Amino acid sequence: MSAATEPAVARFGMGCFWAPQETFERTPGVLRATAGYGLVDRSRLMRVDEPPSYFSVCRGDGRTEAVEVLYDPSVLSFDELLRIFWQEHDASLSTPGKEDQYRSVIWPQSEAHREVALADVERATEAYRATGRSPPLTVVAAAPSGEEEAAAQGLAFAPAEGYHQGFWGKARIKVGVLALSLLLQSSGQSEAARAGELGTYLVLAWWTWENWGLMVAAFPEL
Questions:
Q1: Which residues, 6 or more positions from 20, have their beta carbon under 8 angstroms from its beta carbon?
Q2: Is 157 buried (19+), middle (13-18) or exposed (0-12) by CB count in 10 A?
Q3: What is the DSSP string of 184-222?
Q4: What is the pLDDT of residues 158-185, one digit of tens each?
Q5: What is the C-alpha to C-alpha distance for residues 161 and 213, in angstroms, rounded to an integer?
Q6: Nearest to 26 by CA among 77, 69, 90, 89
Q7: pLDDT for the residue numbered 36
Q8: Where is the Peptide methionine sulphoxide reductase MsrA domain (predicted)?
Q9: How far apart are CA 182 and CA 196, in angstroms?
Q10: What element of type H or E holds 176?
Q11: For residue 127, what are the contacts with CB-CB under 8 A and spacing of at least 6?
């Protein structure tokens, strides 16, 4: 990125944020992709003073799983990001009971980008209908119109917990270690088998430690 080019920000809701974050991270021109929680309508918040968390979003606090993309506009355009947005999720789907959490959203950071996004939704609507699908349910949020409003909109996105960041990459490492551990256990050699058993316990402990928030959200009675 040249010294004269300032990085730009785009935010998208595309269902579960794990896969979209990885997709954006691998896109040339993207400097950073962060999984987090976005807000479309403040009036839908259950509690304005409650900081967002995976647990609160799963309970239906009105926020949406989102990805914030920091990118180099001299390499990657907003239009190209929108192309990825449409390719990587089905915007016509709605998950019963999780409408807010997994909704399809574009958070433009300027009025110009909002106009581009609205036009893109119209094009996508025609494309969906042409293939017999229901129209996209994508929401285009309002763009900040001034310095104070832009600062206030910072509250509209909050990074998710650390165990969500780069989730799929970490999951692949754990699966690989677990597979190796199981292979060692089945080798029939006592030393290797003991090492494999220890590796299995370590992977399970690692997964439990990093994903405790997921377990609590899925099983609140724990």
A1: 12, 14, 33, 67, 88, 89
A2: buried
A3: HHTT--HHHHHHHHHHHHHHHHHHHHHTHHHHHHH-TT-
A4: 999 988 898 866 655 545 444 444 454 5
A5: 8
A6: 69
A7: 96
A8: 10-170
A9: 6
A10: helix 167-185
A11: none
Strand 104-107 versus strand 157-159 pairing type: unpaired
- 108: helix, coil or strand? coil
Taking only the tens place, the pLDDT of each residue in 71-82 is: 999 999 999 999
pLDDT band at 23 (very low <50, low <70, confident <90, very high): very high
Pair type for strands 139-140 and 104-107: parallel
pLDDT at residue 33, as a whole number: 97
Determine contact, residues 181/146, Cβ cutoff 8 Å. Answer: no
Q: Which of 105-109, 162-166, 193-197, 199-203 holds the top average pLDDT?
A: 105-109
CA distance 168 to 151: 32
Amino acid at 172: R
Cβ within 8 Å of residue 43, ≥6 positions away: none
- Which residue do the tokens 């690989």 mark? 176
Tens-digit pLDDT profile for residues 40-51: 876 665 555 667
Query: Phi, psi at residue 38, to the nearest 5°?
Result: -110, 165
Q: Report the predicted TM-score, pTM, of the whole model to 2 decimal places.
A: 0.75
Q: Please tell me the predicted confidence (pLDDT) of residue 174.
A: 47
Q: Is 57 helix (H, G, I), strand (E, B) or coil?
A: helix
